[in-house]
Amino acid sequence: MQTVTIHTTQNVGIDYEIAGVGDRVLARMIDYGIFIALGVAGLIATGATQSDLMMYYFIGLYVIFVFYDLICEVFFNGQSLGKRIMKIRVISLDGKRPSFGQYLLRWLFRIVDFMITGIIGLIAAAVTKNVQRVGDMVAGTTLIRTKPRTTIEQLVFTPTVDTYEPVFKEATQLTDRDVALVNEVIQAYFKTGNTTLVYNMAEKMKGYLGITPPETMNDLLFLQTIVKDYTHIVTVNAQLTNS
């Protein structure tokens, strides 16, 4: 499994699973299949005798086809219909949402990737570290899987209501996404031993929540406690709501 480390605006590196060449090819085939289906439908709808109407239809369909990827990626968060079905999307390697300029560069370099020999993009994606075609390398983007690697249900600690007392009640200010990110950092530390990730995240959480942990509590324990506290509070609130 190939991954890419994306540094978020919080200066925390998070590993994402990169979409493989097979994912890219299948997404492209789905997109092509959509246009083939529209072409066949157009032939059936216009009829062989309505040549003028058929010509206008296919000219319009071709124009849409040319700009299809650019329009979809700009307005649908880096996804065409094929990418959405395959659960992959375009992401900027700097951790931010790709800009219009990056999407435009990816689109312009499709001429190099697909329209000259048809295989340059596949070869580039197969041999580059981040599975990037030429357009991705120029734009500073790649494709990642959109399925979250960590959800709130997958958090490593689920305390019981009767046996756990939250240490930091300020954890109520967090969201599921915040806690999932904290847990990603904890898991990344256990995989890589990178203490910088833990320190950066701990400092961000302390500042955001206005917390000063006890001197005996290190950064890793602080983050683990935040996860425990939040999970406990969510569990209690859910039980009160359903009671």
Which helices and strands, and how do they pair?
Elements: E1 3-7, E2 13-17, H1 21-46, H2 51-75, H3 81-86, E3 88-92, H4 100-108, H5 110-115, H6 120-127, H7 134-139, E4 141-145, H8 176-192, H9 195-209, H10 219-242
Antiparallel strand pairs: 1-2, 3-4
Q: Which tags fit this structure?
A:
single chain; 243 residues; mainly alpha; 2 domains; two-stranded antiparallel sheet; two-stranded antiparallel ribbon; 4 strands; 8% strand
Concise description?
It contains ten helices and four strands; from the N terminus they run E-E-H-H-H-E-H-H-H-H-E-H-H-H.
Structural account:
This protein has 243 residues and is mostly helical. It folds into two domains: 3-145, no CATH class; 152-242, no CATH class. The chain contains ten helices and four strands, in the order ββαααβααααβααα. The chain has helices at residues 21-46, 51-75, 81-86, 100-108, 110-115, 120-127, 134-139, 176-192, 195-209, 219-242; strands at 3-7, 13-17, 88-92, 141-145. The strands form two sheets. Strands 1-2 form a two-stranded antiparallel ribbon. Strands 3-4 form a two-stranded antiparallel sheet. The longest helix is centred in the first third of the chain and has 26 residues, at 21-46. The chain is elongated.
